[in-house]
């Protein structure tokens, strides 16, 4: 295989070096050397192919980002054209590029129902989170409330890996080794019915308890010290935790009452994954900022956008002191912007949220049927588009989490039987492309059935 002028080495060479020279995210170097990762060498439609020629349906959708599948010709064309015309020009003070202007216009239309009309471009999800946290602090300084510096977020939330994002992350795995993190970040219990400190199993009652915890934390910290609350509309990496529908609107009310900005981290949920066009629209809220990335370019290019609402505009625009001392070399990258324009158009033309909702119901119900069959499945969560998790336990009564080896067996046997699925701790997570067909969804469920049967 030739990549440009580079001639690739053969598969034996690649296997020999796999996991040895490259440090992999979220993995210890020793683990990837001892048990090297699957080498993916090709992809088409909603399927991926490994180095041995084994082709499976991608139940992971890349990493929650390949919403439109791997053969999206309009995006490939847009990227190729843009590479010829203008491969890069900066959007820092004094210059810009035409495609990023065009994209900001299209995004302002796309997110108008969410009350968001301005874009700040980034290179990915962690950048978008960082941007929103920094702009939140600047917002309060510009308004003369410099004391508002703290951040609130949900336990089990995932907000990327920069120091700010890690500080608001609600999972110790992404924090402990990197402490001390940003001071002034506080975590509220997540509306996670399967396990919570209140032992509450009713989603609505649990939402109320979490909201009370939010109120209590605000009172304890002092509202005048808090800049923003950041939250995923449906917690994703933490194990697909959809809150009761009353939760997000009530969080927005509480934030409004206390002058706290609400940032929705929609790196996963924007652009259709939940069956709605955005997580904010799913719950009927209007955040002050929305962090997006991933599906904005369908995995074809690293790119992100933070969208801004009216409150941000009121303070930043027409204000000569509101210089934004923040930005990335690749903010508004023309090739990324071209890819995003094509993805946005395809997302709308194909009405992917509608298919995500239909196929999401099929997968969710299929997973619930598997739960009837296999005791190892302690909880199934989802029901909103194509994001579903099965939490695996070694004992349903005590909810003891599954051991890593058994979880790995489920994943490996499912892979042998036709579907790539993702294991994250005790959770088996499904986030396939949103263009999934009924047959593809059935393939994933059949493969999982084989995986659980082998565990
Ligand atoms: N926020 C959320 C909700 C995410 O799910 C992710 C990634 O999975 C991020 C932020 C970080 O995005 P990235 O990995 O593109 O930096």
UniProtKB/TrEMBL annotation:
Pfam families: Aminotran_3 (PF00202). Its cofactor is pyridoxal 5'-phosphate. The keyword Transferase applies. GO terms for molecular function: pyridoxal phosphate binding; taurine-pyruvate aminotransferase activity. Keywords: Aminotransferase, Pyridoxal phosphate, Pyruvate, Transferase. InterPro entries: Aminotrans_3, Aminotrans_3_PPA_site, PyrdxlP-dep_Trfase, PyrdxlP-dep_Trfase_major, PyrdxlP-dep_Trfase_small. Its EC number is 2.6.1.77. Belongs to the class-III pyridoxal-phosphate-dependent aminotransferase family. PANTHER family: AMINOTRANSFERASE, AMINOTRANSFERASE CLASS-III. This is Taurine--pyruvate aminotransferase. The lineage of its organism: Bacteria, Pseudomonadati, Pseudomonadota, Alphaproteobacteria, Rhodobacterales. The gene is tpa_1.
